[in-house]
Each structure stands twice: as structure tokens, then as C-alpha cells.
Amino acid sequence: MSETLPIQLKGIVPTPAGAGIFLSHGDKMITIFIDTAVASSIVMAMEGEAPERPLTHDLMVSVFQGLGVKMTAGVITDFANDTFFAKLHLLQENELGKEVVEIDARPSDCIALAARLNAPLYVVKSVWDEAEDMSGVYHTLKKLED
Question: In the chain, what are the domain boundaries?
Fold first, then answer.
């Protein structure tokens, strides 16, 4: 596997078409733009809110638990045509043994699941190096909020 860097979710900022998620490693931040439904799902998980009925990410958590699957990480793996790509890293352990599975996923879904399951997030170093630093935008938006 390529070298990866741990990343942290710094904030979510509403946009006219959804939201921007700011992810950080060190002093640099990148932004991933996502739809409103996934942004709401992430915010609910971050704030510890439980919906009346399971949302898609809650359902996935229940399925994982039912199948004995643990999310070991969400990894942003690529950036092409202004789109980030990710993999969901899962570990299934049962009486038949242990199996590690990587599933193609949207970064936003990895983040939503990681927020619910307290799983780590990573980015491939070459993707991180290529992505534009958006920390200035983040700090400007935070000043406007205050």
C-alpha cells in the first residue's frame, strides 16, 4: 500500500450545493465538497445525535455489527478530474477466520462511517501533496463566523 498520512475532520461549511468538508494534516487543509444529506449525516454523528429511524450510514453500521465487520480505516486514495476517491477498509472476523476487505467508497461515506465508528481516516501522501492547501479559506470562514 502507498504511504498514507492521518487526517482529521476540522469542520464542515455549508455551500449553496451542499457542504465543504475541511480535512487537516499538520498545517495544511484540503476541502472535499459533498451533498447536503451526507453532510447532515456527518454532523449528526459528530454531535452524537441519533435519528428516529436509521439513516443509510446507521444502517451500514448495523449491518457491519451483524456480520462481525469492523471498519479499520477510511483512506482517500486518488484525486482525478476534481474528484476525490476513497476506500473503506474493513476487517471481518468470525468462526471461519479473518478477512480484510477494501471497498470503493466516496470519501464522504468513509467520513460519515468513521464518525460513527470512531475509525481513523487517512490520505495517500501523493494525493495530499497534489491537493490544494485550503487552510487560508478555512481560517477566513472561521473569522467570519465569530
Answer: 4-145
